[in-house]
Amino acid sequence: MSSEHHDPSITVSKQHTCAGSIDFRALFEAVPGLYLVLAADSPKFTIIAVSNAYLQATMTQREEILDRGIFEVFPDNPNDPTASGVHNLQTSLKAVIQNRASDVMAVQKYDIPRPESKGGGFEERYWSPVNSPVLTENQEVAHIIHQVQDVTEFMQFRQQRNEQHLENLALWSRAEQMEAEIYLRAQELKQANQQLQQTMRYEQELRMEAQAAKASLDSVLMSLSDQFFRLDREWRYTYINDRVVEVTGRSREELIGQSIWDLFPEMVNSQFYTELHRVIVEQIPTQFEYFYSPWQRWFENRVYPSESGITIFVTEITNSKQVEEDLREAHVQLESALLAGAVYTWRWNILENRVTTDAAFAHLFGVDPESAAKGLPIEIFLRAMHEEDRPRVLAAINRAIATSEEYLAEYRVYTADGEERWVTARGRAEYDTAGRPVAFPGALADVTKRRKAEEDRDRFFQLSRDMLAISNMDGYFLQASSAWTKTLGYTLEELTTQPYIEFVHPDDQAATQVEAQKLAQGIQTSGFENRYRCRDGSYRWILWSVAPFLEQKLLYCVARDITERKCAEAEREKLLAREQAARETAEAANRVKDEFLAVLSHELRTPLNPILGWSKLLQSRKLDERKTAYALETIERNARLQVQLIEDLLDVSRILQGKLSLNVAPVNLAVTITAALETVRLAAEAKSIQIQTVLEPNIDQVLGDAGRLQQVLWNLVSNAVKFTPQAGKVEVRLERVDCHAQIVVSDTGKGIHPNFLPYVFEYFRQADSATTRKFGGLGLGLAIVRQIVELHGGTVQAESLGEGQGATFTVKLPLMQQQLRIHQQIKESQLSPDLHGITVLVVDDMADMREYISFILEQEKANVIAVASAAEALSALTQYQPSVLVSDIGMAEMDGYMLMRRVRSLTSDQGGNIPAIALSAYAGEINKQRAIAAGFQIHLPKPIEPDALIAAIVSIIK
């Protein structure tokens, strides 16, 4: 950059010296703040001016640092591996050039080189920098003003204060320990008295140290050149330093305890008022500049929140603001002079068809200046125009003459040297009294640099991976990079002819309009996210950074597609939610387990007490016949309770292992119900509970295990009696519903809470621990009921209107006639029961079951390969290539479901498509669906009938 393009308000080095009507050197160098003026020649950033205060603070000389890059003069401390000052300042300066806006940096640890005369090396410094651009009329960055505040003493003091605070805390902790020791050993009166006196002296020393530290802190704060004060959450002054008293002109007594808004009511609803309230609400520090009009002064405010209120550092920056304004005005003067020097004038005499121009215009078009001053035919100037632009320019001239409108055109011309230049021409025709055009004066400016900058910008637009755009304040894109069309799928014309709000997701439009209103007020947007509609109707997440330029009424936008990141975040949230749900489930399972173990311990120990007690009495004492009989009856009753508990536990164990077997035979439910009622009749009579039975006659039998079905009914009826109060009522109904026998057991007892109803059939679950203490039991009965009913192909459900309103349990079992019809359909579907030539692979880890299935199939002339595990089955499958696979589900190590999934993953040649039948003690519908989903074609519940198994094999082969 040549020297004539630098700001004339500063007298700078040889390479950057420029002339100006005002000499700002003395003004700038005398500024009390620490300032540098840097050239915008990234990455060097040459120092072209420096204030005296800056030289003094950095121990440098003006002639030593001018014309040198700032990072050459002030490098990072090589002895500090964590030094980041150079990197952070480079980032800030580049941001200023890119955004054409000021950048306020956080406090930086930036050590400065110490001159050899002062010992050499580096000196630790802390700076608070602000970098501000000086813009040309074309909004290009000409210079950067680098302003810093040396906050080293404050940072060092804060560090010392923190260390002192920690030391004080340690001392206080030690004092508290001593007091506790004194209290515990109070019996040693003399020694305790000495220790107490020593502790009191120590506390006095601590208080004196704390007072000294406070005095030291007050001394530092009072000596600050900045205003420092604290406000509580009611906006009252709680602390002020001497500078506040000096600046406000009010005494300490007038300020302390008073609301700042009462003392300075003109600041209510101002920027200062808004920023302080925001810090209190958001609890986030902030920094801002504020012009206080009553004093006509500028202040920089740093605000820090705490639980009790806020702390504020206020620095007057009126002088630095004045310097910035002077520099800006000088820059405008320079640009005006440059623009004036680049404007060329002409006058076309339409009647004579001759054009007169100034010398600069003549040089640009390559004609003799003297001839041009006298007048030359317009054709000479038209020939200098670019041939592609000439028709368009002539049309614009003729249109301006015909309509009396202003002529405005931009086109290319060839200079005398053959160089192509871009120019902008402006003019307006003059007319005589008759309205005839007589002359056409105008002016022309060389805009080659601007056009080149626009071309560079357009090239940058197209090459950038970011989604760049320029929009107006009316809500339309004026220009957008190719990244937009690639991301959204629209053409550039579609993007620029519709308001951008129409592309925004309906849920995000309100927030987007709020951001647009902020931009219209000149507030920059950074980190705003919304969703944009693509051509295919989908939406993409967009991250925005937008800088408003109010003078141009334009918004410069940089956006990025963050859809993948948002999807990853959403997936992460789902994973976290699933993990939390799994953890809660596990914790609930652990709680249930712990509760069950506690109940189990209680229920096993409770009967043991009378058993052991009466047994001891029978052994050690001679009891009469009546007491002996009573003792034996008590021992027997409690022993039976333990037997029942153990039977329930064994049943649950068998169910969970799939080993609960049924002795299947036709069962008359009326007889089973009557037998179950007999076992609980005495308990019902003891509580004066009336048991009513309504048994519908002539109901078909069911196929099942009579003992297990009686166990189901005993559980339901005994629970009804147990939970029904004195003189209550229990009803048992047997009726036919379609092809099922339905048993309904209802009572007028304590009922079931709606929240517990979904868990009533789960293992180890009871409504609350009080239920266990009052009624006993492990919470296994209903879980066993559900499993037995489902093994019979039936269902069970519970209903209750709530606590105190009784409960109803309904059991449905398929009638034997329907079961036989199903078996008959299977038999009818087979063409021949003969399995001759069919090889069946049988898999079961129970030897008895494996031998039983093998015997059935061999009787039907099938070839049987029997194995004891899933691993052996996979080996036999590829070795023998059987016709059918018959597998148990509940096997150790690898169960039937996993075996089937492994089989289906094989190729056809390896046996992956083999027909398969599942055998399981789990007879519920959900178990059947799970087997089919795993890859089995048929699910047969145990116990397995020979005819049903053979029919299933025949049907699956056919």
Please provide a written account of the structure.
With 958 residues, the chain is an alpha+beta fold. The chain folds into seven domains: 3-150, PAS domain (Beta-Lactamase); 225-322, Beta-Lactamase, CATH 3.30.450; 342-445, Beta-Lactamase (2-Layer Sandwich); 464-561, PAS domain (Beta-Lactamase); 578-637; 661-816, Histidine kinase-like ATPase, C-terminal domain (Heat Shock Protein 90), CATH 3.30.565; 830-957, Rossmann fold (3-Layer(aba) Sandwich). The chain contains 32 helices and 37 strands. Strand 5 (112-113) and strand 6 (122-123) form a beta hairpin. The protein is elongated. The two termini are 92 Å apart. The model is unreliable at 1-22, 330-341, 769-776 and 821-832 (pLDDT under 50).
